[in-house]
Write a structure and sequence with these properties.
This protein has twelve helices and 13 strands. With 356 residues, it is α/β, with parallel strands linked by helices. The termini are far apart.
Length: 356
């Protein structure tokens, strides 16, 4: 009996009890170890995961079996693609990936706020680097759903050279990605969120769109969609500039939102630095989505992806109704376990979605 089977049955509560006796990052590494074993088993047996088809859709010429994806942060470059799709996700976002390998910030750097089913993390883009991730993705025997690559700059790269890092990561990963997420909103790399200012964002988006076009022509492939991931802490007055620049440089979508540096709950761990995620982020994430939808109005050239505080089918239905085409989750998976995605999709199957 595999550990993956145990995670997928009613013994999850017991397993979760023991996992939560460990530190948050130790438990995460422990689960990744066994998921890696199951992933190897799936690849060796050439077993193709069956993704539930619920409110399926087509975007940018890509097929999405369902609108629920795994947000960046869970798989930072392990590339556990088959086993993650087996959990039920319609698409997977890997990363954040930087051009060069990076250890991330010092530990402890991941904290559970169990009373609120929330997390605080200051991981700091720990990942094996773009070259290693590209090689691992090339070794995946079969792609059963879209894979998004979330890219960022290395910690020691100054903001003045940030564009070079994003371009380098894109060049290395272009042929193994179905879409790229440009992460300028993590609170855990010093100064990174300054890239959301119009002055710095404009040349970054311009260069990335030009590079994506050039790489598509070079390799003779379809141009990869580009999505911009923004912070929930961005001022409402700055959102119009984000939309204007995204449209100007033909970006395909905006992901709203990343984690927050605010503390929407009271807890003894709230003094820890890092990004907060969990149900308490729901109101702000939803508010940003509504604001973006209003700014975009009837223009469907920009796809909206909603993430932040999603814990129920009603949350998913609400985001899709307001105007998101896709949603993502991560923290909910940590607290509710591997069955959580398929349970959400099963309940979503009968939900009526009326797009904005």
């Amino acid at each position: 009996m595999s550990f993956f089977y145990l995670l997928s049955c009613r013994l999850w509560r017991l397993i979760k009890f023991f996992l939560f006796l460990m530190s948050a990052e130790t438990a995460h590494r422990f689960v990744l170890f066994f998921l890696r074993k199951q992933n190897h088993r799936l690849q060796r047996n050439r077993r193709v995961p069956q993704i539930p088809e619920v409110h399926k859709r087509s975007l940018w010429g890509q097929f999405y079996s369902n609108p629920v994806g795994l947000a960046a942060g869970f798989d930072k470059g392990e590339v556990l693609v088959p086993v993650l799709f087996e959990l039920g996700f319609g698409f997977i976002e890997i990363g954040t990936v930087t051009p060069r390998p990076q250890e991330g910030n010092q530990r402890p750097r991941l904290f559970r706020l169990k009373e609120y089913q929330a997390l605080i993390n200051r991981m700091g883009f720990n990942n094996p680097g773009a070259q290693a991730v590209a090689q691992r993705l090339r070794n995946v025997p079969q792609r059963v759903g879209p894979l998004w690559l979330n890219i960022g700059k290395n910690k020691d790269t100054p903001l003045s050279a940030a564009t070079d890092d994003y371009v380098s990561a894109m060049q290395t990963l272009y042929l193994v990605a179905d879409a790229f997420v440009i992460n300028v909103s993590s609170p855990n790399t010093l100064g990174l969120r300054n890239l959301q200012s119009a002055t710095l964002l404009s040349p970054l988006l311009e260069n990335l769109r030009a590079e994506a076009h050039s790489l598509a022509q070079k390799f003779g492939v379809a141009e990869r969609p580009l999505l911009l991931k923004i912070s929930p802490d961005i001022a409402d007055d700055d959102l119009p500039d984000i939309v204007i620049l995204a449209k100007k440089f033909n970006f395909n979508g905006i992901i709203a939102t990343n984690t927050t540096i605010t503390r929407p709950v009271s807890h003894h761990l709230c003094h820890e630095e890092g990004g907060f995620s969990g149900p308490a982020l729901r109101p702000r994430s939803y508010e940003v989505l509504r604001s973006l939808r209003a700014l975009i109005e009837s223009d469907r050239s920009l796809t909206l992806v909603s993430v932040g505080g999603i814990t129920s089918t009603e949350d998913i239905r609400e985001r899709l109704t307001v105007g998101a085409s896709l949603v993502e989750l991560y923290t909910h998976l940590i607290y509710r376990g591997p069955e959580s995605v398929k349970l959400l999709l099963q309940q979503l199957k009968n939900a009526k979605i009326k797009s904005a």
